[in-house]
Amino acid sequence: MPAQPIKAIIEYRGRCRLAEVLSLTRTVDARVKRVHHQDGRTHVWIRLRGSKESIKNTLKNLVRVAGLTHTTVNGGPNNRLVYITFPRSLCNHGEGNCILENPLNKVHIADARVAEDRLYLLVTAPSLKALEELEKRGYRVVKLLRDPEPNLLTEEQERILLRAYQMGYYDYPKRANLKDLAREFGVSVSTIAETMRRIEKKLVEKAVKEEIMFSQMIRNLTQQYDGETMDKKDPGSRR
């Protein structure tokens, strides 16, 4: 039986172009959706949420970064998915230290934030050994996260979800509706509707809980960092 992937929050304090890019998005709610290297370039997809003016100003700031280009993939004035790319040569990591490079590309980045001068990444790693390799390259594992529900869906729910996807239930426009699913599984429309609601509720709750957890963790780390900085400036300030 294959080992379960390990989720963790890791920290990087060195210079990083991704951190510099994210620092320009602080006036909006920014969520990194995907990051990877390909053909000598770094590619980043970020979801920006905020006021029309704040998003407009954020995009203006991104334009000022030398060598960086961006394109709005979809969304409206208050919610945009933005694709950003820049030459790999502009990255500030030392050779082989980037989390996206071999042998570290087995570590998947689920989200990224900047707090003070530090880059925090929510990652999924195939093993503890992969995380140990990251620590050798300048990263610090802040916290290991245990999945409270490693088997989120039952085997039957997984089968139904996979088949619904294959039939086009989640396509736009839909290629299959609830009646088609009910016919496929030999149950009533009300039964398959309830089953799909239960499946989707589990998946949404997991995604929301993970997002809330990561945001709260970053806030706690930032507060801790602020406290440490205050102590260094005035050792007697917290007595």
Commentary on this structure:
The protein is of the alpha+beta class. It folds into two domains: 6-147, no CATH class; 148-239. Helix content is 39%, strand content 28%. The protein is built from six helices and eight strands, in the order E-H-E-E-H-E-E-E-E-H-E-H-H-H. The protein has helices at 17-23, 52-63, 128-136, 155-167, 178-185, 189-233; strands at 6-12, 29-38, 41-49, 69-76, 79-87, 108-115, 118-125, 139-145. The protein has a four-stranded antiparallel β-sheet, with helices on both faces. Helix 5 (178-185) packs across helix 6. The relative contact order is 0.14. The model has no long low-confidence stretch (mean pLDDT 81).
Please summarize what this structure is:
This protein has six helices and eight strands; from the N terminus they run E-H-E-E-H-E-E-E-E-H-E-H-H-H. It has two domains: 6-147, no CATH class; 148-239.
Instruction: Please describe the biggest sheet, giving its number of strands, its sense, and whether it closes into a barrel.
Output: 4 strands, antiparallel
What does the average pLDDT come to? 81
Report low-confidence residues grouped into runs of 5 or more: none
Q: Helicity range of the residues?
A: 25-40%
Number of strands: 8
Residue fraction in strands: 25-35%
Which strand order does the major sheet show? 6-7-1-8
Instruction: Count up the helices.
Output: 6
Overall SS class: alpha+beta
Tally of separate domains: 2
Output the radius of gyration: 21 Å
- Tell the overall outline: globular
Query: Span between N and C termini?
Result: 53 Å
